[in-house]
């Protein structure tokens, strides 16, 4: 069994324990054993990052570009190999997994370019003979805590800008998917980064994550995960004056109007709600359909779901892989039982199913004839489950779309420019899609939401500089 260590201060360091990385498509397949850290190892990684911080902060844009561009190039060259690993450990289908690795590679290349164009301003003062320079400097040591559903793309979109702007990193990946994180760390270990500029510490959030959040030398925390954990991180980090960036989930509506192209709307809903096993914070888990097309849409989406192939993530022709683990599967099934108990009129699919390997397979579920107050329409399920709400008209549909504590993504299917324009302006979400799945975003533009979905500056694109840098204003008398 292959053993994988932490990466701290430029060295591979054994942990205080080990944990198996289990393939959710075949639980007899152990991807490897991965070291587990405690608070002491987390503090060691923070100390290494703090020691390296002055040198990396003083590095040139060209040095940063060279490191990030090399990482991006290697990820792209190894997308097949690393995609297979990602599909094994997380359960995405192989094409989705390869696409995610490629996305990570492009993110590193994008931020390599951003390292060369860190923004700033040279302005005249209101006082004669005085010049004003406004420029950005790195924050210092940043702690990055990532989820299991995108094991390499989300780490990439946190690590790449952190390094591009001269920060040093302590990275804690999700316990369920350490493999992709470890390989990313291994690639970074062979670059020209100073020892300690990047550190990988694997282990439980109660030990490693909590240490990152509370340690005074960690000047910024970027977290993607649950609302409950995110709110605890926000409170703890804010109490000591650290910067915080949290992405915490969604209950994303997709509105389908009477004038929508029905075939297009069904495909938008199927891809947004069910692909990647619905395990995306941007998944379209609440489908809001107006009266005139409601029944035809539901029938057509049911037919589309019946044609999807569920199975081992590495097999050819599979549309949807397994749920990530037994706990997630049990939670999905419990949500469907709650929907039945609350009076949902119709539920198609959703059963756990057996395949020729022991895994966590579930049929996609469509829950129809629901009401807005039902849990299935209010709680993030994070599985292949979508509910349907009937709306009287566009105004009612918009009200139902905004009737949620979340505000990450929202979508609409319509051929009306009037309604598309109004929805773009009035949907209470950080990202709006028209005739496109809510799950599916570009890497060079901002990512983030409103309300309970997000806190702090946006991720990705040039807007990442808002979190990973501080602004300094300098005055000079000539």
Describe the protein in words.
- It is a single chain.
- By secondary structure, this protein is an alpha/beta fold.
- It has two domains: 271 residues, Aldehyde Dehydrogenase, Chain A, domain 1; 182 residues, Aldehyde Dehydrogenase, Chain A, domain 2 (3-Layer(aba) Sandwich).
- 39% of the residues lie in helices and 23% in strands.
- The protein has 14 helices and 25 strands.
- α2 packs antiparallel against α4 and α4 packs parallel to α5.
- The mean pLDDT is 97.
- Keywords: Oxidoreductase.
- Its EC number is 1.2.1.5.
- It is an enzyme of class 1 (oxidoreductase).
Write the layout of secondary structure elements.
Blueprint: E1 3-4, E2 6-8, E3 11-13, E4 17-22, E5 30-36, H1 39-57, H2 61-77, H3 79-90, H4 94-115, E6 121-124, E7 130-138, E8 141-145, H5 153-164, E9 168-172, H6 178-189, E10 198-200, H7 205-214, E11 218-224, H8 227-239, E12 243-247, E13 253-256, H9 262-274, E14 286-290, H10 291-306, H11 326-341, E15 346-349, E16 352-353, E17 361-362, E18 365-368, E19 385-391, H12 394-402, E20 406-407, E21 409-413, H13 417-426, E22 431-434, E23 450-451, E24 454-455, H14 465-468, E25 469-477
Parallel strand pairs: 1-5, 8-9, 8-11, 9-10, 11-12, 13-14, 13-21, 14-19, 18-19, 21-22
Antiparallel strand pairs: 2-3, 4-5, 6-7, 7-25, 12-24, 15-18, 16-17, 20-23
Question: Could you write a compact summary of the structure shown?
Answer:
With 478 residues, the protein is of the alpha/beta class. The chain contains 14 helices and 25 strands. The strands form 7 sheets. A 7-stranded mixed β-sheet has the order 15-18-19-14-13-21-22, sandwiched between helices. Strands 10-9-8-11-12-24 form a 6-stranded mixed β-sheet, sandwiched between helices.
């Amino acid at each position: 069994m292959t053993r994988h260590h932490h990466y701290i201060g430029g060295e591979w360091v054994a942990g205080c324990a080990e944990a198996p990385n289990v393939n959710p498509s075949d639980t007899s397949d152990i991807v490897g054993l991965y070291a587990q850290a405690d608070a002491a190892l987390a503090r060691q990684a923070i100390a290494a990052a703090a020691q390296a911080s002055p040198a990396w902060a003083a590095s040139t844009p060209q040095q940063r570009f060279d490191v990030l561009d090399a990482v991006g190039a290697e990820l792209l060259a190894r997308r097949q190999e690393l995609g297979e690993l990602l599909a094994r450990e997380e359960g995405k289908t192989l094409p989705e997994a390869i696409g995610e690795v490629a996305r990570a590679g492009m993110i590193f290349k994008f931020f390599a370019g951003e390292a060369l164009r860190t923004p700033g301003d040279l302005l005249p003062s209101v006082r004669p003979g005085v010049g004003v320079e406004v420029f950005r400097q790195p924050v210092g040591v940043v702690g990055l805590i990532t989820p299991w559903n995108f094991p390499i793309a989300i780490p990439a979109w946190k690590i790449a800008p952190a390094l591009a702007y001269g920060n040093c990193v302590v990275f804690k990946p999700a316990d369920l998917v350490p493999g992709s994180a470890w390989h990313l760390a291994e690639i970074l270990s062979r670059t020209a980064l100073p020892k300690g500029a990047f550190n990988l510490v694997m282990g439980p959030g109660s030990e490693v994550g909590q240490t990152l959040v509370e340690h005074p030398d960690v000047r910024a925390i970027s977290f993607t995960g649950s609302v409950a954990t995110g709110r605890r991180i926000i409170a703890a980090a804010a109490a000591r004056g650290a910067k915080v960036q949290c992405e915490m989930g969604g209950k994303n509506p997709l509105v389908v109007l009477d004038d929508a192209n029905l075939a297009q709307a069904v495909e938008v809903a199927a891809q947004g709600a069910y692909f990647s096993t619905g395990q995306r914070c941007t998944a379209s888990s609440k489908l809001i359909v107006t009266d005139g097309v409601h029944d035809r849409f539901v029938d057509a989406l049911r037919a589309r779901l019946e044609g999807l192939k569920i199975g081992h993530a590495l097999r050819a022709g599979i549309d949807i892989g397994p749920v990530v683990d037994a706990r997630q599967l049990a939670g999905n099934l419990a949500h469907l039982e709650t929907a039945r108990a609350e009076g949902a009129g119709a539920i198609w699919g959703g059963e756990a199913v057996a395949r020729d390997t022991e895994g966590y397979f579930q049929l996609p579920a469509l829950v129809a004839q629901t009401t807005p107050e039902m849990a299935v329409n209010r709680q993030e399920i994070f599985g292949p489950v979508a509910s349907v709400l009937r709306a009287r008209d566009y105004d009612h549909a918009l009200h139902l779309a905004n009737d949620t504590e979340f505000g990450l993504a929202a979508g609409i299917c319509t051929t009306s420019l009037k309604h598309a324009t109004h929805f773009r302006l009035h949907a209470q979400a950080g990202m709006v899609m028209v005739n496109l799945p809510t799950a599916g975003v570009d890497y060079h533009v901002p990512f983030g939401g409103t309300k309970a979905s997000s806190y702090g500056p946006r991720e990705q694109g040039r807007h990442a500089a808002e979190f990973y840098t501080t602004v300094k204003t300098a005055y000079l008398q000539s």
